[in-house]
Amino acid sequence: MKETVQENPTSQTPAVEKGFQELLRLVELNRHRLREENTEGRSGSRSPENQISETDAVTLTACSSCLVMFKGQSFWDKLWITVIRSIEDVLHWIWGKTYNYLNEMSVKDVDPSVLLSETREYEDAAVILNAPYFSVLRKERDIDLIISLDFSEIDPFKTVFTAAEICKDLQIPFPEVVLPPGEKTKPKDFYVFKDNTKAPTVIHIPLFNDIYCKGEIEKWRKRYATMRMNYSHNDIKDLLEKSGSNIQNNKENLLKDISCIIRQKKSSTNLD
Known about the structure:
- The protein is mainly alpha-helical.
- It is 46% helix and 8% strand.
- β4 (191-193) and β5 (201-206) form a beta hairpin.
């Protein structure tokens, strides 16, 4: 008798459980392969060339331990194990640590401190600003236009306002950011921030806006909250359509501003 199981497309747990079972299956297959569990192996003694190497023996032990640890546990037990291991990683601080391929090399214009260390530690730039403005604002890059697609969960203008404030303190050219009254809570789908200085033009497009969300901005934000761990097929499809519509419906505005910036660039180059 064949049993048909229908999965709820909005449910999160079945996808997690299915993935976990696939992981266990791969571990089991790896263990069987290392033991060479076939008819010939079970009926006779293992020849010297077929002996398990020390590395394979360690792998076999790890696979067996993994099966013993996880088989029969509930989803929440597995979740707690993941949390505990994450805490351990934080205490030992191994995240962000990467092997330094420049170690003990001679590289021109690279600070010696970088060449002497075997590892490098990196941190998430979003700790300061959850948008990569400063990676393109270096003077050497001579940027004329920044297209900002903001996917922030709460305030769609926080990143651009923060970038403007930091740039002002550091004396980095950046346009003044001014919003029409009432649009901070009900954003439109297209903003252009520019001035008459050498600052680049910033085109800012909030993902969830009052044009395409039709008064349901908060509903869309909650649907795609930062702490939500996985999404159904329909969730992903709707998000792609929403983000795509912001670009498609503003195509003419984007091309118009890009063309304007190109003309200004050519004009200033000819004057120089």
